[in-house]
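Backbone-to-sequence.
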């Protein structure tokens, strides 16, 4: 047995399956003239000839000897028979003499120089896999590479267990090399310091190592100081920032995940190199996480101060409203009296005294002065009231963060200003110098900083901290050791690597590398579409659209679901059997084996206790939590569930298990009624945060004033929720591309839909570059502008829609950077959501950002012109988004516990909940699909005439027949056998 189980049963089948694509099938099993000649020369009789050829093909691909008594693939036999001009039925006569088969196998190996695998190849294979194993520990990837090596050398595959053992040894060898690489550069003092992290101190109940991993409880000065002290502890270890640069990120991440699950005692028991390497991997990740969280807590605090200042100003203005009115009335009377005195020649002082005494006037002026503190009514001056709160952590923040800046005057200016404040905090200088860096100061801050009495340190420092937040977000300033706020260049493929990719035509984008050639083609297409839309608008020939006040208006869509489909849906839904959610999950697992994807973090072995695993998944999906789930599940405990979650539940295991369900659903024959799986939609669903999670939630005015978080889900046209992520409550477009690129399923999405929140010009550009057609449903589309290609044009009928001309020069000047950015996203060097936030953030207006926006204007204009004239496109988008909204209703029903509130403060736990909920909805959708087909088949068997065109309107999103509540038990006696199905409901009443 291998030391690690790195291949699942489905992986093993995948490795030796025959090619599915026709082109690959033909390439693998086409016989050359030499092949046919050898077959005829070595065989007599058609049965022997076709048998010889079939064995030859199996030995070439997949690379195995066809097992005795195994029936070969009939498609292959037919194809070989056609080439030999022999009927495939002759195979049935082959191999009656076992000796003949043995002779043929020996002849094939001799004539085609195919060698059997022997142990002399074993060590060589392990060494050849070393470079791959240093990059990944995924068994399937290594096994495929091993098989490619053996095929190239014409060596027959050994047994699948030997293949697994070779891969396992390669992984073990690579891991030992990585352990040595990470620990070899450590000094004796550093090793001692690492050992000390695992010791529980006298003052604390946990070790320093466990303390470092704790998340901040709330975004306030106290917890940012705790995080800064953690960063200080890690920096004292003096670990080089590039310590892990020679180790592939996959291995570092795995080591870090494993290390974080270990107790300090377990880590202490590791072999020394492994212990030090694991601690380094965890600390590198903790350093990045802490640095990012410090910046984000500071961001939250600053945003909160601005919000509080604005609210305070509004409250003051409201409270002083009556006083302001009184003063205005008094000054109105005073002004009127003075004007009258001027007309009559009366003494003006007497006129004043007739309205108000001098003492009262003096008091009125003082009151008016207090009301009108600032003429511009900017709430910014009230930020100063919170200066003491900011000063609690600001000196440590500026001291511990290693800030760097791009060669931009304003960014360099703010970095110099930070150094001055640091010198003030450390007592190196006693006051602000006369000449200060000021390029970063915006107009609204100037009157607060530069006063009649001199420069205000308070407002200068507050301005620095406020602007620093914006510069970090945009990437003009970055932090060494951060994951989300590092140098923009570090996110991208190096310029040298990209140049090589471009020269070898290997950028794998949806464009040609020649900017002029590409843009000429797009501009010609844009010109053509402008002419079509202009002519149709001029002649009033648009379908379901018309001109109004110079703008194109699109008519609302008519009812999408016919009455006959509604009647059929009611009839079918009455047949669906009642089922408990536990039984449903077991049944879906019987079909898909999705639980096999939940493997142990350390040894890769799949979970033995599937009921315990399903209980843990269910606790995430229905928002019950482990403690409450333990109370609702007989024969289990919180400790067991917690252990299962720690070792088996991770983002990648959720993703792989979801893919198993999605792939099964995609191939199910009933899914084709809803689509081909080539279009999709995405939408965010907000869940309120309460209890411990309330402080970690975010407020978005779109959803009210209460904090919350958002689960962002991608849904295929077949209703498959193939990707889900817990995201912040910001613009949806930030995360849209992630789901299209990073899902694990077999779906090949070509066209994607969102609502208005999913659209920006940057996203339009990147979606096109990455090979997707982007089709958002944009609110108030007629108010958005269409942009023209360069040159003189006359589209006067569309004049209200024209916003200007595309800046051709800006795009061509930054063409390589645009392609490098898109290629970096495609290759996985940087996550799409992260880089889109960087590009779209204020105040970055560099060449790449503006050029990408200009590029996006081309694609948005093309889309808008299509939208106006293509009712089929509008209908597709609407149907796709409606499916997403209906799926959100299902998710809301499933996620019913704790009033649908997120109460886990840990971001990782919230991500598990998002994944668990999506897995549950995917399982329900698959189960419903299977039984919808059975219900329709039953109706047909009873003589019901069903219009096939109506089946597209049936939905697998219903849940009324599913029991989501109760005790969560998994009785073996009620478990269906493989191939069995539940009896349909109400059969006698149909």
């Amino acid at each position: 047995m291998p030391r690690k189980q790195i291949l699942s049963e489905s992986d093993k089948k995948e490795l030796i399956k025959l090619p599915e694509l026709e082109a690959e099938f033909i390439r693998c099993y086409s016989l050359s003239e030499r092949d046919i000649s050898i077959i005829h020369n070595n065989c007599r009789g058609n049965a022997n000839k076709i048998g010889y050829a079939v064995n030859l093909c199996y030995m070439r691909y997949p690379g195995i000897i066809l097992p005795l008594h195994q029936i070969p693939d009939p498609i292959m036999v037919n194809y070989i028979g056609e080439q030999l001009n022999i009927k495939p039925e002759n195979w049935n006569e082959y191999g009656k003499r076992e000796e003949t088969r043995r002779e043929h196998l020996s002849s094939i190996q001799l004539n085609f120089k195919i060698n059997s695998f022997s142990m002399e190849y074993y060590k060589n294979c392990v060494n050849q896999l070393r470079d791959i194993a240093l990059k990944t520990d995924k068994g399937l990837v290594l096994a495929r590479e091993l098989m490619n090596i053996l095929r190239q050398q014409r060596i027959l595959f050994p047994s699948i267990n030997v293949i697994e053992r070779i891969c396992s040894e390669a992984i073990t060898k690579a891991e030992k090399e990585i352990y040595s690489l990470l620990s070899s550069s450590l000094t004796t003092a550093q090793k001692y310091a690492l050992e000390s992290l695992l010791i529980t101190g006298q003052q604390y109940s946990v070790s320093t190592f466990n303390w470092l991993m704790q998340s901040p409880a709330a975004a306030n000065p106290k917890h940012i100081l705790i995080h800064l002290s953690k960063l200080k502890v890690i920096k004292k270890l003096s670990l080089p920032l590039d310590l892990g640069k020679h180790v592939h990120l996959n291995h570092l991440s795995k080591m870090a995940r494993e290390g974080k699950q270990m107790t300090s005692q377990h880590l202490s028991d590791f072999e020394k190199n492994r212990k030090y390497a694991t601690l380094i991997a965890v600390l590198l990740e903790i350093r990045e996480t802490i640095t990012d969280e410090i910046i984000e807590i500071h961001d939250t605090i600053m945003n909160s101060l601005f919000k509080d200042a604005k609210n305070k100003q509004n409250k003051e203005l409201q409270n002083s409203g009556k006083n302001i009115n009184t003063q205005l009335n008094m000054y109105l009377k005073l002004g009127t009296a003075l004007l009258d005195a001027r007309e009559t020649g009366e003494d003006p002082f007497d006129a004043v005294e007739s309205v108000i005494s001098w003492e009262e006037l003096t008091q009125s002026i003082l009151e008016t002065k207090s009301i009108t503190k600032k003429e511009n009514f900017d709430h910014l001056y009230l930020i100063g009231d919170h200066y003491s709160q900011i000063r609690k952590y600001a000196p440590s923040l500026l001291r511990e963060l290693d800030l760097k800046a791009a060669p931009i005057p304003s960014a360099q200016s703010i970095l110099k200003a930070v150094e001055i404040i640091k010198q003030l905090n450390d007592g190196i200088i006693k006051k602000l110098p006369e000449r200060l860096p000021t390029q970063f100061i915006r107009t609204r801050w100037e009157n607060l900083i530069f006063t009649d009495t001199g420069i205000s340190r308070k407002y200068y420092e507050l301005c620095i901290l406020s602007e620093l937040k914006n510069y970090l977000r945009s990437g003009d300033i970055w932090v060494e050791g951060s994951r989300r706020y590092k140098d923009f260049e570090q996110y991208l493929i190096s310029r040298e690597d990209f140049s090589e990719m471009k020269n070898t035509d290997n950028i794998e984008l949806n464009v040609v590398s020649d900017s002029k050639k590409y843009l000429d083609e797009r501009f010609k297409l844009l010109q053509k579409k402008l002419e079509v839309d202009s002519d149709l608008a001029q002649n009033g020939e648009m379908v379901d659209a018309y001109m109004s006040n110079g703008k194109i208006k699109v008519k609302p869509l008519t009812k999408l679901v016919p009455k006959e489909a509604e009647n059929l849906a009611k009839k079918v839904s009455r047949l669906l059997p009642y089922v408990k959610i536990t039984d449903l999950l077991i049944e879906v697992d019987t079909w898909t084996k999705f639980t096999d994807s939940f493997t142990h973090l350390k040894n890769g072995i799949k979970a033995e206790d599937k009921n315990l695993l399903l209980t843990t998944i269910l606790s995430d999906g229905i928002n019950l939590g482990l403690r409450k789930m333990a109370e609702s599940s007989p024969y289990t405990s919180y400790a067991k569930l917690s252990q299962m979650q720690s070792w088996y539940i991770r983002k990648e295991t959720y993703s792989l298990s979801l893919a198993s369900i999605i792939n099964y659903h995609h191939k199910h024959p009933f899914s084709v009624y809803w689509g081909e799986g080539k279009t999709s939609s995405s939408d965010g669903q907000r869940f309120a945060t309460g209890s411990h999670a309330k402080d970690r939630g975010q407020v978005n005015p779109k959803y009210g004033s209460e904090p919350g978080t958002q689960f962002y889900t991608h849904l295929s046209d077949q209703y498959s929720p193939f990707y889900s992520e817990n995201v912040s409550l910001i613009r949806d477009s930030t995360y849209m591309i992630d789901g299209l690129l990073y899902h694990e399923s077999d779906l090949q999405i070509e066209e994607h839909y969102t609502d208005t929140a999913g659209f920006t010009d940057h996203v339009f550009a990147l979606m096109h570059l990455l090979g997707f057609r982007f089709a958002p449903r944009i609110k108030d589309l007629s108010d958005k502008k269409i942009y023209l290609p360069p040159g003189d044009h006359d589209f006067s009928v569309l004049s209200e829609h024209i916003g200007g001309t595309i800046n051709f020069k800006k795009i061509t000047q930054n063409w390589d950077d645009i392609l490098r950015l898109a290629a970096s996203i495609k290759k996985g060097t940087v996550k799409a959501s992260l880089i889109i936030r960087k590009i779209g953030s204020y105040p970055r207006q560099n060449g790449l950002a503006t050029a990408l926006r200009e590029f996006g204007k081309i694609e948005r204009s093309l889309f808008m012109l299509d939208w106006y004239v293509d009712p089929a496109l509008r209908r597709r988008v609407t149907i796709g988004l409606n499916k997403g909204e209906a799926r959100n209703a299902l998710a809301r029903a499933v996620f019913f516990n704790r009033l649908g509130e997120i109460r886990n403060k840990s971001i990782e736990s919230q991500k598990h909940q998002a994944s668990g909920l999506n897995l549950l909805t995917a399982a329900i959708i698959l189960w419903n699909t299977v039984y919808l087909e059975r219900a329709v088949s039953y109706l047909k068997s009873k003589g019901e005439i069903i219009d096939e065109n109506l089946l597209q309107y049936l939905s697998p999103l219903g849940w009324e027949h599913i029991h989501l509540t109760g005790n969560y038990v998994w009785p073996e006696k009620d478990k269906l056998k493989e191939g069995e199905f539940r009896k349909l409901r109400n059969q006698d009443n149909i």
